[in-house]
Design goal:
seven-stranded mixed β-sheet; 389 residues; 13 helices; 40% helix; alpha/beta
Amino acid sequence: MTTAELGEKYIMHTYNRFPITLAAGRGMYVYDEHGKEYLDFVAGIAVNSLGHNHPKLVKAITEQAARLIHVSNLYWTDPQVSLAQKLVENGELDKVFFCNSGAESIEGALKLARRYGSKTGRQEIITMNHSFHGRTFAAVTATGQSHYQEHFGDMFPHIKYADFNDIDSLKAAVTDNTCAILMEPVQGEGGIHPADTEYLKAVRKLCDEKDILLMFDEVQCGVGRLGTLFAYQTFGVVPDVMSMAKGIAGGIPCGVVMAKQRVADVFKAGDHASTFGGNPLATAAGNVVVDELLGGLLDNVKTNGKYLTEKLNELKAKHDCILDVRGIGFMQGIELNKPVAPVIATAIDNGLLLVNAGSSIIRFVPSLIAGKEDIDKAMDILDIALSQN
């Protein structure tokens, strides 16, 4: 039996997988079991920040695995503390909690918000329509897309929704029981929709006036993807709590919750925990990613993110089926007036990996090392796929 056939037999059907078995990767490319080469503009869904088989990342993981992989959070380890220091000293938030995934980082933020609200008896959390925050029960309740919640019974209580980029809708949703507002600075699964800077400033002002926590979900849009280390730095609006994951450790599972000191202080020993979170292997990888970002990779995202926008707009001018180009840095999307599945399938056949964000949006979240030649090649293949569908 092939790997795909064995997978169908033994693995739960929670993904509709493409008929490809990937076996190796290098830089911006991956290779299937037959040796076919694919230019990877999915990057593990915005995870492989440094591309595939990055020598510094491989070296750090290999050396750390030979020393110490896991000891739990009963003890300090240097890689964890070092990564926490870098994240704090290069941003505006004061404390770090490590976990293992985006959904876990959102769960941690939601618990922190409830714990903060317990001081005054407030429990309500407002999130945005068309948002996506993860698949665990609280995270999927926070997700403002009902189809992710179907068939799972009652959702997590005291979460309500407002319209994204609409301050009047948000103000109407706020009550005396509201303790936190959670949003993505750039909505990912909801269709690649960046927040308006003035909207975020208005939300920040509202939260300050009413002692409501402003919480950003940077799981997909953070870790350099917009051209700044943290997404909030692109907009100049600092949250009280921020979650991130995906690209932080270059492919090793790692999630992060960061918070202002006054908020972090409400967590006491035993209030929250993670056995695997921030283990030496994951944080050794995270240190490499942050060092590379601060060492010049952020400039690459800024420069070539603009170039990607230019090339996507050139395709828009050529293909009437493209309704819109939107996004920032290396988190961009094109909206079509038709389903994108056939376009993506044709692109894959021609050696380009792409991913959707809904039925009519193609999402571009390449590794942060992507250069102009990679973008040119991707656009050439996409041009063919659009012409054939």
